[in-house]
Design a protein that fits this description.
The complex is a heterotetramer, with 1 copy of chain A (234 residues), 1 copy of chain B (743 residues) and 2 copies of chain C (85 residues). By secondary structure, chain A is an alpha/beta fold. Chain A is 24% helix and 25% strand. Chain A has one domain (2-233): 3-Layer(aba) Sandwich (Rossmann fold), CATH 3.40.50. Chain A has 5 helices and 11 strands; from the N terminus they run E-H-E-E-H-E-H-E-E-E-E-H-E-E-E-H. In chain A, the strands form 2 sheets. In chain A, strands 2-1-3-4-11-10-9-6-7 form a 9-stranded mixed beta sheet, sandwiched between helices. Chain B has 743 residues and is α+β, with helices and mostly antiparallel strands. A 7-stranded mixed beta sheet of chain B has the order 8-10-7-11-9-12-13, sandwiched between helices. A 7-stranded mixed beta sheet of chain B has the order 23-25-22-26-24-27-28, sandwiched between helices. In chain B, helix 7 (96-112) runs parallel beside helix 8 (133-153), helix 10 (237-251) packs antiparallel against helix 13 and helix 16 (396-404) crosses helix 26. Chain B is globular and about 85 Å long. Chain C is α+β, with helices and mostly antiparallel strands and 85 residues long. Chain C has 2 helices and 3 strands; from the N terminus they run βαβαβ. The chains are: A alpha/beta (234), B alpha+beta (743), C alpha+beta (85). Bound molecules: adenosine-5'-diphosphate and magnesium ion (MG). Adenosine-5'-diphosphate (ADP) binds next to strand 4, strand 5 and helix 17 of chain B.
Amino acid sequence: MKFAVIEFPGSNCDHDAYHATKHVLGQEAEFIWHKDTDLAGADVVILPGGFSYGDYLRTGAIARFSPVMTRVREFADAGGPVIGICNGFQVLLEAGLLEGALLRNRRLKFLCQHVHVRVEQTDTPFTCGGAEGQVLKLPIAHGEGNYHAGPETIAALEANRQVIFRYCSPDGVTTEAANPNGSHASIAGVCNAGRNVVGLMPHPERACESALGSVDGLVVLESVVSALAAKGAA
Amino acid sequence: MDQSTIDAHGLSADEYQRLLEILGREPTITELGIFSVMWSEHCSYKSSRLHLRRLPTEGPRVVQGPGENAGAVDIGDGLTAVFKIESHNHPSFIEPYQGAATGVGGIIRDIFTMGARPIALLNSLRFGALEDPATRHLVDGVVAGIAGYGNSIGIPTVGGEVAFEPSYAGNPLVNVFCLGVAEADKLAMGLASGAGNPVYYVGAKTGRDGIHGATMASAEFDENSADSRPAVQVGDPFMEKLLLEACLEVMKTDALVGIQDMGAAGLTCSTCEMGARGDVGIEIDVSLVPQRETGMTPYEIMLSESQERMLLVAKRGREAEVEQVFEKWDLHAVRIGEVTGDGRLRIRDHVEVVADIPNRQLADRAPLYDRPTTRPAYLEAAQQLDLAACKAPVDLPRTWLDLLGAPVIASKHWVYRQYDHMVRTNTVALPGLGAGVVRVKGTDRALAFSVDGNGRYCYLDPAEGGRLAVAEAARNVACAGAVPIGATNCLNFGNPERPEIMWQFAQAVDGIAEACRALEIPITGGNVSLYNETDGEAIYPTPVLGVVGVIDDASQVLTRLFPAEGLDIVLLGDPAGALGGSEYLKVAHGMARGRPAALDLDRERALQQVLVEAARGRLICSAHDCAEGGFAVTLAECCVEGGGVGARVELAEPAEADDRFALVCALFGEAPSRVVVSVASGQRDRLLAHARELSVPATVIGQTGGDRLAISVAGEVVADIGLDEAEQAWMGGLTRHFEHVAA
Amino acid sequence: MKTRVFVTLKPSVFDPQGKTIVDALGSMGYAGVRDVRQGKYFELDVDAGTADEARSLVSEVADKLLANPVIESYRVEVDGEGNDV
Amino acid sequence: MKTRVFVTLKPSVFDPQGKTIVDALGSMGYAGVRDVRQGKYFELDVDAGTADEARSLVSEVADKLLANPVIESYRVEVDGEGNDV
Ligand SMILES: Nc1ncnc2c1ncn2[C@@H]1O[C@H](COP(=O)(O)OP(=O)(O)O)[C@@H](O)[C@H]1O
Ligand SMILES: [Mg+2]
């Protein structure tokens, strides 16, 4: 199975996504430069975290015009699994592949720390290996992760079960104190209507080895490996 | 050249005379500008060079000592750690966000210029008292600036230190350390060679930024400096990220001869130094230099300090390869000149020659001063500590909590949570847990680093302060389980033209040199920042040491936290502490007096050896150095943060038990070479035996467990606080000052 | 031709920056500042024959890039047009 | 009373954001955009009896908090004043 890790100018978690998929999961992985016009036959696309175009103007705003994004959109439209992590999530939102927007963190400061998120839905390729209500300990590192969408969008997302992760306390309760950035309804990650495109602010790729303090990110990355294996077998 | 122009360039009569000798004629204005920045304190180290020679710079692991853009030490597996520390004090005072941000940008360039991929940043910060809103504004801006740059470029900031003392109110210190890893045989050098080889300029366009920035860093502030502010440099971390990736990629091609970043004194310094190191000349045409503003003169182009620019010398015939790599990153390498065989730095504006200087002489004949030194008069009185007029504390638990909440001691999470400290997925000890530790992918190893320096100790005894700074940084690294293998230093002092300041400087260098020699930690580079004064008030003399250590097995890394209940607590080192220069004296009595406790270098060395070997043998479960606040504070720091465990300890009766301050000394007195470790009972005797072998005192003082922290002396509980109280005081001590700071 | 674009958060969107500024001003004694909203301001210098041309170019750029329609709205001003504030 | 504050980088100060936006627009085919400078825009609702009072309050606030005088300059507009652009 092959992961494509998209590299925008300024991406800085590209190597982390590559390391986690290639060296920890033992899968194939390839960097795809933002000017490339094909995805090298990848089965999964990762839009990594970082600061594409320095986060100038707005996070993800410039990256979404990169040539490679046309291919990513086609891949997603055809049902291919796409995950946007942190800045990658921001790019997916700007590109309209996911709904909503991310505002400055409630307290304005950039925040780097471990948080807990609850898995809300398990029928996406990135959560199928988890259990509903399972609590994952994952790092965040962002200044603009405060999820916002209009009331109708929120209602639709909730009705269609498109909220995939919510910030919560270690025992799984969503509280204001456990919401690090002020996100609406503690939303930490969402998926599209087709459920194959997922975006989240926490970094699963930073939590795949016990030396780094948590292995809960494996739930996310191993899910897609088993989802695709199952599909291949079927 | 008229005298006022010469004066405006800060050249003394002697220096100007030397310039005339070298040129054999009157200089052009561009030449005068070039000499003035190359011979400024900042670039030439004219006041400090003589002293820096006393620092030990050699050792079996040293791959690159001082002289290049950064030093390098061997870390095994054919890899080297490339690291350096730099100050950005003056710019950060003028514009805290941009000053700190561009400081980070500058030190990162020094590292990747050497061909190393930067993998960690640390910072050492000093500000005035936090009660002053102006200080809070500075702290907020500086921290945001460090975060803004480091986070964006994607290099984790894994540690540092912050202290607050009134002496830094008008002159904060912002020192930034960066470390990268390179293959030992692939280090790049900042040198030019081969007449006819093309010289390339790459990166941001040149504007009128920070012209005379290097001379600014070489003059003290006064009331007028607020008005004569030069254009502030604005950092562009996105550009630097592109440069970083493109330069590392270009270096893999072997089409490069040399490379150097344009830091202070920009194009002037980079052309001159690259030429001088390779003993060649360089000729460039400034009209080819990409410019952001119109109508720039050759003088301005040569002296601009615009950020995010690099100078490269490529091999003739390999131009296309170099240009292609930069194109890929949307950077356009521009050929602005070539290497020449005549040893001259020749600057043209189209066809007109605007400067023509013998390069070696510009670099090598920079002035060197043996400035007079005098022992400062304040020392006599300041070193006397008379507590007769002081009230001894009646409520020791209260004093304990007050110290835990003192901003110098309290948790710095308000600072480091703003820094991405996990990017690159190497950080195996998060900031706040002791030394920063990152693993080296592709090996089993990890590197640990700490930056330390106590300005108050140095103020009270500069030589001892220098020794203590080395020892503390190295001890912090050893507490993580790492063997200290190299150091860099940033020497922040006042005006060197004052003999008292120069004396502090010379003494501190002696102290650092002595300790580095004894602990076998070579200095591979560093930075000197002088003229840190405002209206004649100097900062505390503040040498900051950055020590790098290596751990062969990354899974053996230790932090400060007691990991479980039921462990034995052992104090390594002599239990006695002293109040001279202590944080207790400052917090409880508002005094900076006495002498810091003296360092025994043999003891220190043995202690660090015990720590490293105990970590390697997995004898101990945690280790934490007794620093500011003494034993009691250290013990609490082993317990607090997110579900820690309590502790109950028993100390021996102090020798001068009848002294009113005997208990205070035992609890809050400070002294080097003391470390609190936790150990599983099965390993305890091995640890004690091992310590005994190396003549390091080791005392079992208690056990971990429960939800209280209790210290008894001679069977009687003298201080007992709740874990939650301790945690609250410590977690809130710094943060509470920032509840109302706007963005 | 000189043009200006003002990007503001839609009224329904919470503005954490504005809120922090109001709070800070309150604690500095400026209680008279009741509300603050922070937006972005761009000055664009464009090649255009007429003010109309400039406006249509800049509006397109604002639509596509400068503003995020999910949370923001924008307003364009062009030199030489009668700009009402 | 409604007021507006425009904060811009001083002309000599480098604006990396503006530059990145121009470059991005260039590669999107908008070569007609020659230069972009990005600034901040604030809408302040203040208690003030007269436009003059509002202007002096807002100018003070801009000086102290909204603009960084070392690298930025600002301009204030008050509803009901004849604002020249
Ligand atoms: N400016 C900073 N940036 C990042 N981490 C910091 C900073 N200041 C302090 N820390 C972290 O907080 C912890 C405590 O710092 P310090 O009190 O200096 O420790 P020590 O007394 O062991 O030297 C360390 O882990 C350090 O890395
Ligand atoms: Mg320290």
